[in-house]
Amino acid sequence: MLWQRAQEPHAHRWSLPGGALGDREDIEASIKRQLAEKVDVRQLSHVEQLSVFSAPDRVPGPRVVATAFLGLVPSDIDPEIPADTAWFPVDGLPETAFDHRSIIHKARHRLGSKLSYTNLGFALAPPDFTISALRELYSAALGYRVSATNLQRVLSRRGLLEPTGDTSPPGPTGGRPAALFRFSARGILVTDQFAVLRPPSGGRPAGAGATS
Amino acid sequence: MLWQRAQEPHAHRWSLPGGALGDREDIEASIKRQLAEKVDVRQLSHVEQLSVFSAPDRVPGPRVVATAFLGLVPSDIDPEIPADTAWFPVDGLPETAFDHRSIIHKARHRLGSKLSYTNLGFALAPPDFTISALRELYSAALGYRVSATNLQRVLSRRGLLEPTGDTSPPGPTGGRPAALFRFSARGILVTDQFAVLRPPSGGRPAGAGATS
DNA sequence: CGAGGTTTTCGCCTTTGGGTCGAAAACGTG
DNA sequence: CACGTTTTCGACCCAAAGGCGAAAACCTCG
């Protein structure tokens, strides 16, 4: 979501929401305060710090150091936004102000990574969803196709997926009705260990093989 | 590496090196400038941004927002440091100033994570090393024992380990001489895909099984 | 100089986890 | 009620990572 600047510098360019840090707030509170002027911040399902951008000339005029945040909204919510703001696909950005384009790309990269090794998907999905719908969400966020079979198995094995018991009616062209699921753990949750060099676990059970 | 504050606030407590951001520098340059007053910054093998700490009361007096960085030094280097500074093990910190203890713990966590899915080990190891030495480094940084067999295999498969051809002489109690290795890629390098939901690859080759 | 202790290295095995495919199930429609 | 559609499930596969234990290479001491 970007808003179009009315004044110089960079008038008419599209810009991320933001503003100055207040005396009695930390940066996350400030972000939410700034954002509240554009949308209902209660619709945000997840907010996390991204990175600091501090190049001396990143904006013209007096020095500005920016701390960027990544915020997510569930896919079933379409927030009301004011006239000077609009949603853009990450792959089709307009001309942006300052260094905001690189901030956005950094955010997209972070989202892709975290989808893989956390349950951050809960922040993108509605409370109940079908595997197909979740598959489309993940595909869009990651930028490549993921298989529904796999997605379900991976999330299930981690104990993150929970069937609601209900089914969603099939589309206009028929087809088997899809089972509905929800995420069982809401808060953000990191996979115990990431890729490699886990402490102890698998391998050959002690006292098994006696070769030759 | 901490230095002991001489003046209030928090006199005599131990503190991370740092200072105010200058007008014509970005934060990374500032960090290095501050740090240069304590050690030779050319010995740093890796520097990366950690996080911003912005609680309004994190330090007494005028508002201070801090951007914390993680810096690494190879294990074979023991930098000269001034009288008011000292090295501490992360598990045995003295009484620290402000919120520096939580900053340190965040840094340690980041280090552990990145060791798993990047080749960040190159920043901790000397140019040439034995697998045993590397194992000790990883164990210390991760906080749990890793097996030498496994470490070597994991790093080799990623193409990060390269034998020098030399061997290092055994210790005073004898033992087989250890082969020396070096990291083939110096710059930081992320594992192509992290844990799960890779694009396409493995699995059953097309047109193989014809069950029953 | 060989027996015995030590450290490293290597080969073989197991477990885990992610991937592919095809068939079966459950729907709508003509 | 045959047919196209979508979802779900089961069978199989491969790669990566962990665990031993044996073999290799070295030192020291009797």
Give a verbal description of the structure:
Chains A, B: This is 8-oxo-dGTP diphosphatase. Chains A, B: Pfam families: NUDIX, WHD_NrtR. Chains A, B: It comes from Umezawaea tangerina. Chains A, B: Residues 1-111 form the Nudix hydrolase domain. The structure is a homodimer of 212-residue chains. Chain A is of the alpha+beta class and 212 residues long. Chain A folds into 2 domains: 1-117, Nucleoside Triphosphate Pyrophosphohydrolase (Alpha-Beta Complex), CATH 3.90.79; 118-192, Winged helix-like DNA-binding domain superfamily/Winged helix DNA-binding domain (Arc Repressor Mutant, subunit A, Orthogonal Bundle). Chain A is 24% helix and 18% strand. Chain A contains 4 helices and 8 strands; from the N terminus they run ββαβββαβααββ. Chain A has helices at 27-36, 100-117, 131-142, 148-157, and strands at 2-4, 14-15, 46-53, 66-72, 85-86, 129-130, 161-168, 178-183. Chain A has a 3-stranded antiparallel beta sheet, with no helix packed on it. Chain A is elongated. The N and C termini of chain A lie far apart (66 Å). Residues 200-212 of chain A have low confidence and may be disordered. The interface between A and B is large, with 36 and 36 residues. Chain A binds a DNA duplex (30 and 30 nucleotides) through helix 4.
Fold topology:
2 copies of one chain form a homodimer.
Chain A: E1 2-4, E2 14-15, H1 27-36, E3 46-53, E4 66-72, E5 85-86, H2 100-117, E6 129-130, H3 131-142, H4 148-157, E7 161-168, E8 178-183
Chain A binds a DNA duplex (30 and 30 nucleotides) through residues 130-132, 147-150, 152-154, 157, 169-179, 195-198, 200-211.
